[in-house]
Design goal:
Strand order of the largest sheet: 3-2-1-4-7-6-8-5
Helix content: 55-70%
Number of domains: 1
Structural class: alpha/beta
CATH superfamily: Spore Coat Polysaccharide Biosynthesis Protein SpsA, Chain A
CATH topology: Spore Coat Polysaccharide Biosynthesis Protein SpsA, Chain A
Distance between the termini: 66 Å
Number of strands: 8
Number of helices: 13
CATH architecture: Alpha-Beta Complex
Strand content: 5-15%
Shape: globular
């Protein structure tokens, strides 16, 4: 009798896990299709924007920089080539307590081009987080619009112009964001995985949510926000270590939208070692835990119902979907080893294979927008599913352990930079 009860319990657990996993897969499939139509519409939109003339306003480009000597020169040189009216934008580097040659390099470039400015936070007061650095930078400019870029970014010349064009065309937009590409994607297996992940996230989740619900989330870089709105919101939340997603929700709560502009492109560096990747991704999950807990209780007051859905989806991703994945993985392994039996009739093997095929096809479609859907990528996606994607379970578990068990204080941890050969950035 006990064995029968156990089998029944395991069967129920397995069915619930399968339902939850397939719910998320179905949702992602819908977003993939919507993202495809957003891609098509964006190409038409880009041609229309190219034919327009704009009276562009002043923009302040804020770059928080903490020990960025390996990348800051290339970043500033790239931004000085923006095809935006030269007298309408300034670049303000917030030197956040750097102990390397960051300040020296910025001063050298600022001496040659007055559009570059340097704001130095004293060493003892620096390194306290990107949100704090951005708030300090905001107080030192009176520009009507504020763009944010990470210190490792090399945007293409048209990026700022395309972002600003949409803000001028659509007063209901509080902010706009572009696409980021992985500049060091060919460095090793990890950077190839990250490249696939980031392109898929942007082309499926970001573009798909915008197309269907007019919802998207600011990334940490390559976005522009209205200064007036930032002041109304009292800047960035300095307790948030994923300040971008936190600010996104408050922008929507004010009644504005955030639009995805996939043809406004920047190149950025991604982690090249697993240790750096683990620290960065753990920070992301812990930061999103903070955001979910901060706004979860406010969901009933959201006037934008799709924003409520998006916050619930964030909660579901970390607290429901990954639990279902872990449960199904454990049951699968135990069943394969003959340690348990789940006597459920049904085509569960076919269901699993179909889910896997959908995963591969969705990723390939997303990669095709950037012409990276080669035959070789199929092998990488297959390998990625069984390795990189499964490691995310560890990352989520680690973040939950640090937040819920150890109750460790959330602190902003800078991502380590690497030397990137110029040829690789092409």
């Amino acid at each position: 009798m006990a064995d029968t009860a156990l089998q029944l319990d395991l069967s129920i657990l397995f069915v619930v896990a399968v339902i939850l996993i397939w719910f998320m897969i179905a949702y992602q499939l819908v977003l993939t299709v919507a993202g495809y139509f957003h891609f098509l519409g964006s190409m038409k939109e880009r041609r229309a924007v190219d034919a327009m003339k704009f009276d562009f306003p002043r923009v302040a480009v804020l770059i928080p920089a903490h020990n960025e000597e390996k990348v800051i020169r290339r970043t500033l040189n790239a931004m000085l080539t923006f095809d935006y009216p030269p007298d309408r934008f300034e670049i303000l580097v917030i030197n956040d307590g750097s102990t390397d040659a960051t300040e020296t390099i910025v001063k050298e470039i600022a001496g040659r081009d007055r559009r570059v400015g340097l704001l130095s936070i004293p060493e003892g007061e620096g390194g306290k987080g990107k949100s704090r650095a951005l708030n300090i930078g905001l107080r030192h400019t009176d520009a009507e619009f504020v763009a944010v870029y990470d210190a490792d970014n090399t945007p293409v010349p048209s990026a700022l112009r395309y972002l600003m064009a949409q803000l001028l065309l659509h007063p209901d937009l509080g902010a706009v964001l572009g696409k980021f590409r992985t500049v060091n994607r060919h460095r090793n297996l990890l950077t190839r995985f990250v490249n696939i992940e980031t392109l898929s996230f942007q082309s499926i989740l970001q573009a798909g949510r915008w197309k269907l619900f007019k919802i998207s989330t600011l990334p940490g870089t390559n976005f522009v926000v209205r200064r007036r709105l930032l002041e109304e919101l009292k800047g960035w939340d300095e307790e948030a270590i994923t300040e971008d997603s936190e600010l996104s929700i408050r922008i929507y709560m004010e009644g504005y939208h955030i639009k995805v502009i996939p043809y406004a492109i920047t190149n950025e560096q991604e982690p090249e070692t697993w240790s750096v990747w683990t620290k960065q991704r753990t920070r992301w999950v812990r930061g999103n835990n903070y955001v979910a807990l901060k706004f979860f209780k406010e969901i009933p007051q959201f006037t934008n119902k799709w924003l409520a859905v998006d916050v619930l989806n964030l909660v579901a991703l970390y607290y429901v979907f990954f639990i279902a994945i872990v449960a199904s993985d454990i049951l699968f392994v135990l069943s394969a080893l003959g340690l348990i039996a789940i006597p459920l009739p049904g085509p569960y093997t076919a269901v699993w294979i179909l889910a896997f095929v959908l995963f591969v096809l969705e990723i390939l479609l997303a990669l095709s927008y950037d012409r990276e859907d080669s035959f070789r990528q199929i092998g990488l996606i297959l390998l990625m599913y069984f390795t990189y994607c499964q490691i995310w379970i560890f990352i989520v578990g680690r973040a939950l352990y640090l937040d819920l068990i150890r109750k460790e204080k959330r602190t902003w941890v800078k991502t380590v930079r690497f030397e990137t050969p110029p040829a690789e950035s092409k």
